[in-house]
What does this fold into?
Amino acid sequence: MPKLTVEGFPTVEVEAGKRLVLAIEQDAHVDVLHACGGNARCTTCRVEFIDGEPTKWTAAERQVLAARSISGVRLSCQIQCDHDMTVRAVSRLAGSGRPDPGGAPLPDITPPAVWT
Ligand code: FES
It folds into this structure.
């Protein structure tokens, strides 16, 4: 099983292929935001990779980050845990002023992943 480390939190093992946003929330127990419900629209699920950044991207992730001229982060809703990863959770509910993290992302990547 892949190992996930969120900086400042204990390393956890996660189900292979699990969406990173869900692994951060459910396995690492870190309050990552996902305002659009994991649909590659809001960018609030962004993380910085310290190690193990995936080489593959969904087309939706590339598109939304480019459209907003955002670099240096990845969208955890568009990534599967298929290898060991270490990330920094830079967009959390704590301190955000939001009432909740957002709608629950589905188990599979949405919109359906088109890998690039
Ligand atoms: S872009 Fe909105 S939750 Fe990932």
